Amino acid sequence: DLPEIAEIEINPLRVLSKGAVAVDVRVKL
Prior knowledge:
Layout: E1 7-10, E2 13-15, E3 20-22, E4 25-28
Antiparallel strand pairs: 1-4, 2-3
């Protein structure tokens, strides 16, 4: 089980043909 994510910041978010790639990801739990 994953912990509850209170806040997630993804900047920038690159959307490619294979899917989305988060270049800089900060997750606050």
